[in-house]
Design brief:
mainly alpha; two-stranded antiparallel sheet
Length: 297
């Protein structure tokens, strides 16, 4: 028993000595200081007493995530211009103050976008109001051989207005279905020239040759179908003497001319558009006059 007591006493003395030496080692002091004091964030905040103890000042921490992120790209002038212009995500500019074809942009149209354009042009406010103006103008200047029930009175106005609505509906429907099946883009592409004559010729050529959904030139079959539908629909509505093939062909040529005039008006819209704004025409027209297509930005 005496032997084991001596051995246990020696072992206890060794453990006490080792613990005392290790606790006086500088790493222990640093660890104790780091637990009791917050780490300095700047060299200027380090106290002289800390330097005298041999503590090294901690470097300033920087936000590594902030420094590693690249600078955000500045918007280009073209992107700023597109952001300021009233263009929908479908790429359609609502410049239809006079129910003109929308201008072509870089964004391709989906089948749903085309359908929204068709619905507005066929059943929207312009499709209801503009035929009324056309019927009133025709009542003021009727054809010379029109029967009396098509020239005078409210019944005559109703018949003429009904024909104008049927004419517009047939034209827009034929253009939409043909363009949808043949993948034609219903929008108009403006010329890049600054010459007025070249721009006019471009608008006239675009009546015969338009763009596909992929951007290629193609025969404007939808325009021919629209003009034919508008020309021949009168054969079942108009009075005798005006419902024959000859008058249908004449109306077809007139409908095709209206498409060309609409292209010319859209081509020069950047020039006459500011004058329309000065006359406050967009303010006079209600907000629902211009089409608001799906997927607004």
């Amino acid at each position: 028993m005496t032997y084991w007591r001596i051995r246990l006493g020696r072992l206890s003395a060794i453990i006490f000595f080792a613990t005392t030496v290790l606790c006086r080692h500088p790493p222990c002091v640093v660890a104790q200081d780091s637990k009791s004091k917050p780490a300095p964030t700047d060299h200027a905040d380090v106290s002289p007493s800390a330097l005298s103890r041999g503590d090294e000042p901690q470097p300033v921490r920087q936000d590594s995530n902030r420094d590693s992120l690249p600078d955000a790209p500045l918007p280009t002038a073209q992107a700023q211009e597109e952001a300021q212009s009233p263009v929908t995500s479908s790429g359609t500019q609502p410049n239809q103050i006079l129910a003109l074809p929308p201008a072509l942009t870089r964004n391709p149209l989906t089948g749903e976008d085309k359908f929204h354009i068709y619905i507005h042009k066929t059943f929207g406010p312009p499709a209801v109001i503009l035929p009324a103006f056309g019927a009133g103008f025709q009542m003021l200047n009727p054809p010379s051989h029109y029967p009396r029930d098509w020239k005078d009175g409210g019944g005559a106005f109703g018949r003429t207005y009904g024909y104008k609505v049927a004419d517009r509906t047939s034209r827009e429907t034929a253009q939409f279905l043909t363009g949808f099946l043949l993948h034609e883009d219903p929008r108009y592409q403006r010329s890049t020239s600054t010459n007025a004559l070249r721009r006019t010729l471009h608008a006239l050529v675009f009546t015969v040759v338009d763009k596909t959904d992929s951007g290629r030139n193609t025969l404007a079959v939808s325009n021919f179908a629209s003009a034919a539908a508008g020309g021949f629909v009168g054969m079942g509505i108009l009075p005798d003497g005006y419902n024959d093939i000859t008058h249908a062909e004449q109306r077809m040529a007139s409908e095709f001319l209206q498409i060309a005039i609409g292209n010319i008006a859209t081509e020069f819209e950047p020039q006459w558009g500011p004058w329309a704004k000065k006359l406050r025409i967009p303010k006079i027209l209600p907000a629902w006059w211009a089409p608001q297509h799906a997927h607004q930005p």
